[in-house]
Amino acid sequence: MSSELLAPLDLAFWHLESAGHPMHLGALAFFAPACTPAPAPEARPGDRVLGLLADRAAAIPRLRMRVRDVLLPVGGAAWMVAKDFDVRRHVHHIRLPGGDFTTEATAIAGELMERPLERGLPPWEMWLLTGADEGEGGAGPFAVLVKLHHALADGMRAVAIGAGIFDEIADARRVGVRRARPVPPRSWLPGPGKVAGFARNRIEELGRAVDIGASVVRASRFDPRGMPALSAGSSGTRRLVTAVLDLEDVQRVRKVAGGTANDVLLATVAGAMRRWMGDRSERLPVADPRALVPVSRRRPGSPSGSGNKFSAYLVQLPVSDPDPRSRLDAVRIAMDRNKAAGPSRGAGALAVLADQLPPLAHRFGAPLAQGAARILFDVLVTSVPLPRSALSLGGCPLREVYPMAPLARGQSLAIAMSTYGGQVHVGLVADGKAVPDLDRLAHGLKEELAELLDLSLAR
């Protein structure tokens, strides 16, 4: 693969980025202490893991690509192989001073998420975080922070790329490597049937784009009057707080209330926000906050491809409702309504609309689009699927992994969730100054799920 044009949606994320609003995804993975000895007595285990990360990242072809402008299409850009690629410019090591390792690693990860990726290089970074005891024989745990630009991948594709660092995935790739079969040359001139099909598809796409655009206009709120913390001005700072929920508890609630596990998690977010507002002594918002819930448009069993392939649903989070069970019912009904309409219709399908626009529109329309998030939704709530099998790095088991979503302009909070090892790991990313009490919101998630479970068991 020498070059590949950025798809319209990928190009949108590339141009939406600014210094105060970097558009990269992240994941913070915690591993158990070193399980195998270093290759030499004088070598630190952290150095061994750092070398392993570098070797495996360098073996992933997608991570050797960078973005370059192209002449055609006008305003477009392409992924091109970085001929001067040096993995050492992307894989870094930080030794934390001491104290509680998890707390320190989470704090530094939030700070590292503030920094935009260097645009002249392949847009990704990995940071190995080790504790003070790493230099004394290496008995301590360690963490890895992965940053991937949103133009490079959506959540599912990011998992597929990032998974290449794990022992199980890297070993499978070495065993199962097959050379691609050459593709016979084809004429670039389409036949009459293809021309007719292309025209018909473009007309259908135009109709969908008009429909989505009208839905966006109808759903826009120019006077949201929502939660002050969610609409505060941007400071450019980032804070990360994590929470762990028991997946079995989520499933118990789901079995009683119906719907899906994701419905339960969205209702848990709504209840946690209500508790959070109570702690802040804030009045309930005039309009309940809206959540943008991304939905993958990748078909099961089809090639994963590159870039972004998703839509989204808009869901009103019933923060003003005092009854937890009623909140869950409201979320389930709203999600059922969204699913019935499908991920390619409605105001939440803004990503689908962006995928219909020409490159030049993204290049010059980005400044206008940057402010659209605030009038459409208040918080991003996304679920990132992970492999169900156990994973490890250098023989050290993966214990926890917390996904992180970027903050769009006008947004102060993004919530990302992933399921691994019987737990739901929640990564809450917020503007550090707008939401200084983010840990209270994380605690509210646990309290709300516990109450939902108690109410479900009491039925």
Report on this model:
This protein has 459 residues and is α+β, with helices and mostly antiparallel strands. The chain has 2 domains: 3-175, Chloramphenicol acetyltransferase-like domain (Chloramphenicol Acetyltransferase, 2-Layer Sandwich), CATH 3.30.559; 203-388 and 401-457, Nonribosomal peptide synthetase, condensation domain (Chloramphenicol Acetyltransferase). Helices cover 37% and strands 21% of the residues. The strands form 3 sheets. A 6-stranded mixed β-sheet has the order 5-6-7-2-13-12, with helices on both faces. Strand 12 and strand 13 form a beta hairpin. Mean pLDDT is 81; it is low at 176-190, 194-210 and 300-304.
Name the features.
459 residues; alpha+beta; Chloramphenicol Acetyltransferase; 2 domains; 6-stranded mixed beta sheet
Q: Summarize this, please?
A:
This protein is α+β, with helices and mostly antiparallel strands and 459 residues long.
Write the layout of secondary structure elements.
Elements: E1 3-5, H1 8-16, E2 24-31, H2 45-58, E3 65-69, E4 77-81, E5 91-95, H3 101-114, E6 124-130, E7 142-149, H4 155-162, H5 167-175, H6 192-219, E8 238-246, H7 247-257, H8 261-279, E9 290-296, E10 310-316, H9 324-341, H10 350-354, H11 359-369, H12 372-376, E11 379-383, E12 392-393, E13 396-404, E14 413-420, E15 423-431, H13 438-457
Parallel strand pairs: 5-6, 9-11, 11-14
Antiparallel strand pairs: 1-4, 2-7, 2-13, 3-4, 6-7, 8-15, 9-10, 12-13, 14-15
